[in-house]
């Protein structure tokens, strides 16, 4: 392996359809649950689980 090569051995392929959101009305961060996996209220939708006009970050 050369210095600039990427070691992708062991990575599983991802289905592109699976990477997309299934329902555009659901919050992209919590996917409609209103909470994050840690149990916190989702900061994007503020717990509603609905999609908002807010995008991006940084």
Characteristics:
little secondary structure; 58 residues
How would you describe the overall organization of this protein?
With 58 residues, the chain is mostly loops. The chain has a domain at 23-58. It is 7% helix and 0% strand. The protein is built from one helix and no strands. The protein has one helix spanning 16-19. The protein is elongated, with a radius of gyration of 16 Å. The model has no long low-confidence stretch (mean pLDDT 79).
Helix content: under 10%
Task: Give the class from helix and strand content and strand pairing.
Answer: little secondary structure
Identify the quaternary structure here: single chain
Number of helices: 1
Beta strands, count: 0
- Termini gap: 34 Å
Average pLDDT metric: 79
Largest sheet, strands/sense/barrel: none
User: What percentage of the residues does DSSP assign to strands (E)?
Assistant: under 5%
Morphology call: elongated
Low-confidence stretches: none
Order of helices and strands: H
Radius of gyration: 16 Å
Region (Disordered): 1-20, 36-58
InterPro entries: HSP_DnaJ_Cys-rich_dom_sf
Biased composition (Low complexity): 47-58
Biased composition (Basic and acidic residues): 1-10
List the helices and strands and how they pair.
Elements: H1 16-19
Summed up:
Helix content is 7%, strand content 0%. It has one helix and no strands. The longest helix has 4 residues.
